Amino acid sequence: MKRDPRESIQRYAEKYRRQVLVDKFGVGAQGRVVGNDVGNAVKAFERQPHYETEREAYRRIRKARLQKAGPFNIPELVRFDDDLWIIEMTVVNPPFMLDFAGAYIDRRHPFDDETMEAMHEAGEEVYGKERWEIVQEALSTLFGKTGIRLIDVHPGNVRFENDYS
Length: 165
Ligand SMILES: Nc1ncnc2c1ncn2[C@@H]1O[C@H](COP(=O)(O)OP(=O)(O)OP(=O)(O)O)[C@@H](O)[C@H]1O
Ligand SMILES: [Mg+2]
Hints:
Blueprint lengths: L4 H12 L3 E2 L9 E6 L3 E6 L2 H16 L4 E2 L2 E2 L3 E5 L4 E5 L5 E2 L6 E2 L7 H15 L1 H18 L1 E2 L8 E2 L6
Antiparallel strand pairs: 1-2, 2-3, 3-7, 4-5, 6-7, 8-11, 9-10
């Protein structure tokens, strides 16, 4: 089943009496992120598995008290709603790491060596060799502390200070 994130955000705002500021952030493949009147980001998901993966990621990040991986700021979980598939989190400035909806937690990723190799090359191309190494290191810190494997890495989700995305 799919949900309309716009509708969920509306209902969330009513439920918690929070004003939403639409269009502050992005509309992505799997959801929608808006700001609210207390300065947080509210992310609504279209699909339950993505919501659950991201919720689990933020729970682990909270449990590990991880506020940063390498130089990258990680949002802090503020509240989640299992009925609306919404996660409210703090807003972070770049350098940041966020968007764990597509992460692999407690399961192996399905990519073969060749595909992984191609993704590494693409990452090196997008970030440049030096920054890609910083990203790689941060990803292994994240994995080591939380068991979260972030594979789909691009400047939308893992962003340096003066990156464009
Ligand atoms: N907590 C936050 N702090 C600052 N910026 C944020 C935050 N959450 C989201 N953003 C901005 O909004 C964009 C979209 O958010 P996110 O990547 O989580 O959603 P998405 O791309 O819709 O999800 P998916 O990639 O799962 O489809 C991010 O690339 C980032 O620029
Ligand atoms: Mg994203």
